[in-house]
UniProtKB/TrEMBL annotation:
Alphabetical list of Pfam families matching this protein: Glycos_transf_1
CDD domains referenced in this protein's UniProt entry, alphabetically: GT4_PimA-like
Protein name (record): Hormogonium polysaccharide biosynthesis glycosyltransferase HpsO
GO molecular function: glycosyltransferase activity
Length: 390
């Protein structure tokens, strides 16, 4: 089976592990990944990235000239895409830029013009209802009408796609999996010593952006409600809410129990997760954000949850978006924004170490069964086979 996947996400080599696993599932599978030749992701990496061609046999990364260097929906590719499609002649074309992406429309049109007869698929994370105006509504309708299958990163995303009128096959699975050789249980005595963490401390951890919608203020207030418990808060990330977090902890004479670490490379994040007695993702749905085509945000998956689960770290999450589905019975879930409920979850894990250990083991089993790159590659290939054979 010849599979072509296009997305700006794969300019990061670590993000390609699932697709590499897909290429090695069985003989006869070839995976070509189309990435923009240049891309400016913004945020921490506020620079233009120039991608490189890679040939690993049946797995290739092919940079293609592109228009728009920092907008997913407006991304389109240059004329060199045509020669690649003519030479490779894929049976599957998957574009991971959402339902309204011009790059997906471009692939659909070229699929028809070049008579490739490939199955058209797109991936989307979006999980809130939305309204569109012309011409974007026409663009999305065209893309949906020419889709042979859709992959959504969450359950709500599948419901939204149905609401948009799509009646074809949908597979629910995240875009990226876990590297289980990196995210694995491993003691970190030296790092613990550097951060002033002792064996008596119950380390409550958070990894992500320091912004209100991630629920950090709720998390801090829940910890302030249980000052007599032996907790320390380990925050890994950055964001404009940092000053407020420091101010609140200082006013409550608990600043020495809050540890903030910034700028950790992704391949070192597992070391910090392995210091945690629990990882919390207290995300909160908001409707304050607005773009040209969408309003609001709620947690689309929570990848850090499965990374913690792979390390046998018990997880606690709010009921925002996909979090309850990711955790299932392999962790604790509380109503988003409910300080007392989160404090109760924390007290349970602090006072019941056997319960915490059991949750950690359940999470590990679920992560290894469902969320490794190999497991996701198998799910994705099974979906492709279903479409090709239909």
């Amino acid at each position: 089976m010849k599979i072509l996947v296009a997305s700006h996400s794969y300019i990061v080599d670590l993000n390609c592990e699932k697709l590499r696993a897909l290429a090695h599932l069985k003989p006869g599978i070839e995976v070509t990944v189309v990435v923009p030749k240049t891309w400016k992701p913004g945020g921490v990496q506020n620079k233009i990235i120039t991608t490189q061609y890679r040939n690993e046999g049946n797995f290739k990364i092919v940079p293609i000239s592109n228009f728009s260097q920092n907008h997913q929906g407006l991304l389109t590719f240059g004329i060199d895409l045509i020669s690649l499609l003519r030479e490779f002649r894929p049976q599957i074309i998957q574009v991971e830029q959402g339902s309204k992406a011009l790059a997906y429309t471009q692939m659909i049109v070229l699929n028809q013009l070049l008579k490739l007869k490939a199955k058209n698929i797109f991936f989307t994370w979006w999980n809130l209802p939305y309204e569109l105006k012309f011409p974007v509504t026409f663009l999305e309708k065209y893309n949906l009408n020419h889709s042979d299958g859709i992959i959504t990163g969450n359950q709500d995303g599948a419901k939204v796609i149905r609401q948009r009128g799509y009646q074809g096959p949908i597979q629910v699975m995240p875009q990226l999996g876990i590297n289980q050789s990196l995210f694995t249980p491993q003691t970190q005595p030296e790092l613990a010593s550097q951060l002033g963490i002792t064996s008596e401390d119950f380390v409550v951890g958070f990894v992500g952006r320091f912004v209100p919608e991630k629920g950090l203020l709720t998390l801090l207030q829940a910890l302030l409600a249980i000052p007599n418990k032996p907790w320390k808060l380990l925050l890994l990330g950055r964001g404009y809410l940092q000053a407020e977090l420091i101010k609140i902890s200082t006013e409550n004479n608990l600043k020495d129990r809050v540890i903030i670490t910034e700028s950790v490379p992704h391949n070192q994040v597992a070391n910090y997760i392995n210091l945690m007695n629990t990882l919390i993702l207290p995300s909160e749905t908001t409707y304050k954000f607005k773009t040209l085509t969408t309003v609001g945000w709620k947690e689309q998956f929570g990848h850090v949850l499965i990374e913690a689960m792979a390390c046998k770290v018990p997880v606690i999450g709010s009921d925002s978006g996909e979090i309850p589905h990711v955790i299932g019975d392999a962790g604790l879930v509380f109503p988003e924004g409910n300080i007392a409920a989160l404090a109760n979850c924390l007290v349970q894990l602090i006072e019941k170490p056997d319960m915490a250990k059991s949750i950690g083991q359940k999470g590990h089993q679920k992560a290894m069964h469902k969320y490794t790159n190999q497991a996701l590659a198998q799910q994705q290939f099974a979906f492709y086979q279903e479409l090709v054979n239909s």
